Amino acid sequence: MFTKKYIEMVSKADEIQGLCKYNKGDWFWNGEKPYLYCKSGLGSSNPHDYKWLPTLEDLFKIWCNLGETTNFAGLCQRITDRKSKLVRYPNIKHIEELCLEAIMKEFYNKSWNKKEWGEINGS
What we know:
123 residues, 5 strands
């Protein structure tokens, strides 16, 4: 469901982690495997010990809530269109990674450099 690369990317995206509301049904990473937040909680006294793993639906909601009015099909077209330059690295292959990269670039002026998020120069 979640790629190792996506888990690393989203875990280091402090801006996205700050948007987490800790809703039941959300996915989290404890450093070993994903956990679904349910009635019994996450198994920790502090849910902030975990990293939020937003689903594709969550990423789309973030995209819309941050000010974009495009529909889902429009977002997919923009992130896969080489001319739009929303996604800087063509080696990102999974849709969650593409959406996360688009959100971080469009709203936070950051791109993934294979290890961490960095400011985009000249923007």
